[in-house]
Specification:
Strand content: 15-25%
Shape: globular
CATH superfamily of the largest domain: Ribonuclease Z/Hydroxyacylglutathione hydrolase-like
CATH architecture of the largest domain: 4-Layer Sandwich
CATH class of the largest domain: Alpha Beta
CATH topology of the largest domain: Metallo-beta-lactamase, Chain A
Distance between the termini: 98 Å
């Protein structure tokens, strides 16, 4: 009897210890949960559309998932190939229905060989079929190895990604500046929409505005890492985004994102997310609303130390009634224009020219 009681006591102690261990395991957060902070409400389970703005430093890479299909827009620098490979592998994205190389610069196409090494790519788009760089040659070699033909889309083309619609708004192969050749596209999922502007700058934005596309979007992928010459007031006014994402490297040599770009976004009352501050950013949509998750620094100030009162310069150009010249607001000639001759414009560049004004030769607005 004593032996039976002793055995029963030992079993009870062991069961108690096992129960404690399991209790601790259930309470312990998963690794992904530790490194992820959710903002802008928690996404419901029925979100079948996701955009992953992958943190690739001073570069671009976005993965779009919808109803089991996928699209990769750019792939970062060449050194990001292994990161892109691992990112796709961890999420079991072994088929990329559409690969978009927005333009031929390394910080956009350099890491795409990593994607080609892991996933089966069905179609690939780029505004350039040739470009004088070793990185681009490597990209072409990987495409050839995987028997993928590089295609040049046209403005106005569209295709479906799952139940979402993708529209090509710009792919200007006639541009001399590679940035302004960028493929600019809009994705619509239900009542939500996303605009990706690659490295398009003022000139490309002007042409897109002249094309009269419906630019209104909930989420804007900010052009050219937040450069001064992208995301102009007229462009923003047509998009009217609620949210903006800037893919940019910390302490980069270009000063991106610039105060000018950030100021315009703040003036437009846009909530800004940044990969240099918040790491990889994921946006989900249920077709009615969008939900953001950041990797870190959820509640940080993404605008930085912008001077108060910057919203007083909500005009895009400054004109001289006497000389009939127009300038950028920061042109040195502006301070010499008398109050009686100065005029402020918040309209498209082409419309100012139609009014009889010509661009300043110094600031080249």
């Amino acid at each position: 009897m004593k032996k039976f009681l002793l055995l029963f006591l030992i079993l009870s102690i062991l069961l108690c210890l096992v129960s404690c261990v399991k209790s601790e395991q259930i309470q312990a957060p998963l690794k992904d949960e530790i490194n992820t902070e959710t903002t802008e409400n928690i996404a419901p389970e029925n979100c079948n559309f996701e955009v992953h703005f992958i943190d690739v430093g001073q570069a671009d890479a976005s993965l779009i998932l919808c109803d089991g299909q996928s699209m990769l827009i750019d792939g970062g620098n060449a050194e990001d190939s292994s990161l892109i490979y691992s990112y796709l592998k961890e999420r079991n994205v072994d088929v990329i229905n559409y690969m978009i190389a927005t333009h031929a610069h390394e910080d956009h196409i350099g890491g795409l060989p990593g994607a080609l090494s892991f996933a089966n790519v069905e179609r690939a788009f780029c505004p350039s079929l040739t470009y004088d760089s070793k990185v681009f040659d490597t990209f072409l070699n990987y495409l050839e190895k995987e028997n993928v033909t590089l295609e040049v889309p046209k403005s106005g083309d569209s295709f479906e990604l799952g139940s979402s619609k993708v529209e090509i708004l710009s792919c200007d192969t006639e541009q001399k500046d590679e940035n302004n050749k960028s493929i600019v596209l809009k994705i619509t999922y239900g009542d939500t929409s996303f605009l990706f502007t690659a490295d398009a700058e003022r000139e490309a934005e002007e042409k897109i505005l002249d094309s009269n596309f419906d630019l209104k979007s909930d989420v804007l992928k900010v052009g050219h890492h937040g450069s001064e010459n992208s995301t102009t007031y007229p462009f923003l006014r047509e998009i009217m985004p609620k949210y903006a994402v800037i893919s940019v490297g910390a302490d980069n040599d270009y000063g991106h994102p610039t105060k000018e770009a950030l100021s315009r976004l703040r003036d437009a009352d846009v909530k800004v997310f940044r990969t240099d501050i918040q790491g990889t950013i994921v946006c989900k949509s249920d077709g009615n609303n969008v939900y953001f998750t950041v990797s870190k620094n959820e509640n940080t100030d993404t605008f930085g130390n912008l001077e108060e009162g910057s919203n007083q310069n909500q005009f895009t150009y400054v004109g001289n009634k006497n000389s009939k010249k127009f300038h950028t607001p920061d042109c040195s000639s502006v301070k010499n224009i008398s109050d009686s001759n100065i005029v402020y414009f918040d309209i498209k560049r082409s419309e100012i020219i139609d009014k009889g004004y010509s661009p300043c030769g110094s600031c080249k607005p």
